[in-house]
Amino acid sequence: MWKRALVGAVGALRRSYASGGVDISSAVNSMLLRSLKDHYLEVAKMHMPPKVSPPSPFTIVKGALDSHGPVLKRGYGDEEVSIYVMRLSTPEDEDSAIDQLFIHVDVSKPDQNESLIFLCGLYEDALGIHSVSMRPKVQDSGYLLISSQYTGPVFAELDEKMRDAFHSYIEERGVNESLFKFLQAWLYVKEHRNLMRWFRTVGLSIDGKNPATGA
């Protein structure tokens, strides 16, 4: 998509420049606005995945689609379990399916200043822990804080029984491959919204207009 837009814009610019008598800046703005509009309309026609509900008892965090905070939360005894999600890797093909996810699992207790953080790879049929660490509790901003302290040993180098015990620990809290379908669909929707918003706000900026708050 991007290559086609760039090649078309460059070709049109060269033709305008060669013909003379055309304001280059206006021509560039016009081409860019037209390209942004075309791609906005193309993205708007994309089909969204079927609506999927998160596995009980997880609930969706209000406003998660418009923030960088947690997507899901649940209680477990006196603990609060929060799930953050992103792509495990950035695909070269912009149309690639989201078939692997990277999740942060935050397990916090009211009487502790730090949370237990699991960084995991999540797939449709499996979940693997990459690391386990303690970090300061998440602030009101919703961002995970990166601790400058020692974050623990390499998970793969731990004793097999200890690795299995950590997997059982998060399994008991509902963190497993059953989350994949919901988080996959949620990421599709979030990325679609972000892409639509980007085309719109960039277009409004080039056109000299102020986007509405929250657009």
Q: Mind describing the biggest β-sheet? A: 6 strands, antiparallel
Strand content: 15-25%
Helix content: 25-40%
- Mean pLDDT across the residues is 81
Rounded Rg? 22 Å
User: What is the strand arrangement across the widest sheet?
Assistant: 1-2-3-4-5-6
> Number of helical segments?
4
H-E string: HHEEEEEEHH
Terminal Cα span: 23 Å
Number of strands: 6
Rough outline: elongated
Low-confidence stretches: 1-10
Q: What class do helices, strands and sheet pairing give? A: alpha+beta
What does this entry look like structurally?
The protein is α+β, with helices and mostly antiparallel strands. It has helices spanning about 1-20, 25-45, 160-170, 180-205, and strands at about 60, 70-75, 80-85, 100-110, 115-125, 125-135. The chain has four helices and six strands; from the N terminus they run H-H-E-E-E-E-E-E-H-H. A six-stranded antiparallel beta sheet has the order 1-2-3-4-5-6. A hairpin with a 2-residue loop joins strand 5 (about 115-125) and strand 6. Helix 2 packs antiparallel against helix 4. The relative contact order is 0.15.
Write a concise synopsis of the structure shown.
By secondary structure, the chain is α+β, with helices and mostly antiparallel strands. The chain has four helices and six strands, in the order ααββββββαα. The longest helix has 27 residues, at 180-206.
